[in-house]
Structure formats: structure tokens, C-alpha cells
Amino acid sequence: MISRALVSPADLLIFDEPTTGLDLGGRETVLRELSALASRGDERTMLLVTHQVEDIPAGFDHIAMMGRMMEHECMTYLDTHPRIYATLDGNTTPGTITFTGPLDEGLTDERLESMFGVPLHVERTGQRWKASHRLRFA
To answer: Strand (E) positions, 1-138?
Structure first.
């Protein structure tokens, strides 16, 4: 499917969880190829959907994060991003866009902890990301 998409003349390529069900070697092959595509200056817009920060290929540089936001957070966000859709009740339901921007500004401990409701640590090694559970000792 990815090969077929790459030979098409489309201006937008959407990859919806392209590594789901692959073993580690398969996942790394797909991520390497997507990274190469992103790094070679291809003019097409590429959108990658994933639940795993480890599946973000090198060369991808922006993120739109979806999750749940409290109403006061949502209203503040909507004031600064007026073109983002919101319902009249503050759009606090799952699926709310909670952040858009550069990866390094979006993938923070605080944002992912808020999104997933568990203590997390996010780190970048080279051009790849990793998130892990952060143990808290009393």
C-alpha cells in the first residue's frame, strides 16, 4: 500500500499507523523508508497517524496531538488558535486537538502525562523519540 501511494501523483500522503502488526525489523524498515522520504525534500505533505512516539520517523517535524482538555484549557487554546474547531461546550471530549506545532514543543512529559493520565518521561535520542513510564517514589 505504501509503495502504491508513493508512485501516485498525490500531493498528500496519509499513513495511518503503518507499522501496526509488524515485528521490530519490519517496523524499522518502514520507518527508515518514511524517514528517507521525509528527508529527501519530497514536496508532498505527509501525515502520519500513530499512538506510539517511537513510530515517528526522523525527518517528521510537526505534530498535532489529540486528546482530552479541560474546558478552561480548551478556551485558552481556542483564543490563540481561532481556526481550530470547537463545540459550544468547550470541546472537552476525546478527539480535541490539544497541541499543534514543532515535535520538540509538543512531545513533553507534561503533555503526554496529561493526555494518557500516567506519569511519563519523553526523550529524544538523535532524531527518534521514546516515551516510558516514570516511576515515582514516595
So the answer is: 12-16, 45-49, 62-67, 96-102, 120-125, 128-133
